[in-house]
Amino acid sequence: MNSDQVKGNWHQFKGKVREQWGKLTDDHLTQIDGRREQLSGKVQEAYGISREEAEEQVRDFEERHRDDYTWH
Questions:
Q1: How do residues 23-55 score in pLDDT, each as one tens digit?
Q2: Sequence ranges of the domains in the chain
Q3: Which of 5, 34, 37 is nearest to 17 (CA)?
Q4: CA atoms within 13 A on the CB side of 35
Q5: CB-CB neighbours of 43 under 10 Å
């Protein structure tokens, strides 16, 4: 996955995001709006982790869901 925006239905995808990162609020999900960089930043902020850790979590998430959604 190589860009910035989720291809497909963000409304369905954000349910999976919420399952993975329960601390993300509806406001966070609205701000993210399918953008990968925003997702990584909000995960970092909500969980008080490093940028590198947030990126690693998002990459792992992408791998598990790569057949369902891709970034374009």
A1: 999 999 999 988 889 999 999 999 999 999 999
A2: 6-71
A3: 34
A4: 9
A5: 24
**DSSP code per residue over the chain:** --SSBEES-HHHHHHHHHHH-TT--HHHHHHHTTBHHHHHHHHHHHHT--HHHHHHHHHHHHHHHTTT-EE-
What's the CATH fold of domain 6-71? Protein Yjbj; Chain: A; (1.10.1470)
Cα→Cα distances 10→41, 47, 50, Å = 17, 22, 25
Q: Cα 29 from chain centroid? A: 9
Per the prediction, the chain carries an average pLDDT of: 86
The pair phi, psi for residue 20, each rounded to 5°, is: -75, -45
Answer for the pair 1, 70: CB distance below 8 angstroms, yes or no. yes
Q: What is the pTM of this model?
A: 0.82
